[in-house]
Every structure is written in structure tokens, then in C-alpha cells.
Automatic annotation (TrEMBL):
It holds the Pfam family DUF3823. The lineage of its organism: Bacteria, Pseudomonadati, Bacteroidota, Sphingobacteriia, Sphingobacteriales. Gene3D superfamilies: 2.60.40.2060, Carboxypeptidase-like, regulatory domain. This is DUF3823 domain-containing protein. The keyword Signal applies. Keywords: Signal. The keyword Transmembrane does not apply. It comes from Sphingobacterium corticibacterium. Residues 1-21 form the signal peptide. Transmembrane segments: none annotated.
Amino acid sequence: MKALKLLTNICLLLFMTTGCEQDNFPAPQETFKGKFVDKNSGKPFQTAIGNTGIRIRMMEYSWDDNPQPYDFNCKMDGSFYNDKIFSGSYGVRPSGAFVPLEEERLEIKGVVERVYEVVPILQVEWMGEPVLNADRTVTFKVKITYGSEDPRYRTPLVESRLFVSENQYVGDFSFSTNYTIILNPAQMGLTASTILDDDGVVLTITTAQSQKAFPDYSRKYFFRFGARSQISFDATNRYNYTDVKEVLIP
């Protein structure tokens, strides 16, 4: 019995050793990095983190004409960095709250860097700096216009939000439900079918409109404004964003 057990352990060890040798493939180590830039303003393209932000889809055509897609997402400022990619020939197609881009063929080997200039669906901009009021509320002014002159991308707005968070990662992926303000078309002075003219719409939002007042002690908050129209890409209705404003509430 002991001899049989010893023989079984030896066979198992040999099997494991052989398996290790067969699976000893090089780890992915090529790098694809870059950034997305707002073509209209020349500034970094502001986006969400995760599935509601910019998705980069990579299709490796080195071995298959119909490969399994490999997706990853950008940072809030539209930059991206992925150093875990296998060397090969890829079709790359980004998707976000911008006029769609065609798939681009790239050879990924070593470090490959790309800068994508994109036209946002909505141009969302702060107008001036936030104003801290005597009652510890904050007033913001924003402007929303269309980013493209193509009528296909000039559709009615469905919603805008002043996102508020206790940390810098603020957007539809991370926000305080107590302080974030949601505006429907009527609250923006629009109808559900309004097409904006070239002047767009200017909104003034004060945090007094939120569900709850800020607590009665000094604290830093982070604000970001986002708006979205009826347009969806890849079954996702994404926001266009401003950058983040940091305000100390005394």
C-alpha cells in the first residue's frame, strides 16, 4: 500500500511539472498609452471612470479574423496606460461621449503611444469660478453647447447634474446623493424636444437646491458638472463633463 501511494505521488508530481512546462508562455508586457483631447478646446477630454467613461476596445487579429474583444477604460482626464498587452496586430476602436471614431489598425510592440483628438457630443464648460455665499452655499454657472455641427449629434438634452463628492473622484461613478443636484429638461428651461441653438444654454446652480445642507463644520468638497443628450453608444448614455472644482466650505 505504501509503495502504491508513493508511485501515485511521483506520477502526480511528474504531471504537475509537465503542465508547468507547457504553460510557460511569456507574460503580456507591451505598452499602449496615450490620451484623448477635446478637438474644439485643445484641453484634456473629461470623462468618467469605468464603463460610463471612455472604453478602448482592442481586437487582436494576429491569429484570428474574429477575435474576442479586449476592453479597458481611461482615467478621468482622458489619459490611458496599459502595460499588460501581448505583442501583435490589433484593431483599436475607442468609444465615449464623442463623435464615433473608426477602428484603427496598430502593431503593438514595445511602447506605442497615441493621441486621439475627439469632438464631444456636448461641450460643457464652467463660466467663471464658483462663488462661496455667506450662508455656506456655493453657486456655479455652466454653459452647455453642442460639440459638433453634424445634425446627427445635435439631439435634445435628457439630464444634467452638479455632481458633489467628498473625494476628487467625482462623477456619475462616485457622488454624494445628499448634495448632488439633478436637473431635467424643464429645470434647465428646455423641453424634452428642444434642440439647442449655437448659443446653447447657460445654467446657474446653487447648492441650496440639493436635498441636504452641508454639515456645520469646515470640509472640502469636489464638484463636477455633467450633461447628456439622447445619444447612446454601445448601449451606454454617457455624460460630457467639466473638470473638477475643489471648494472648502468653512
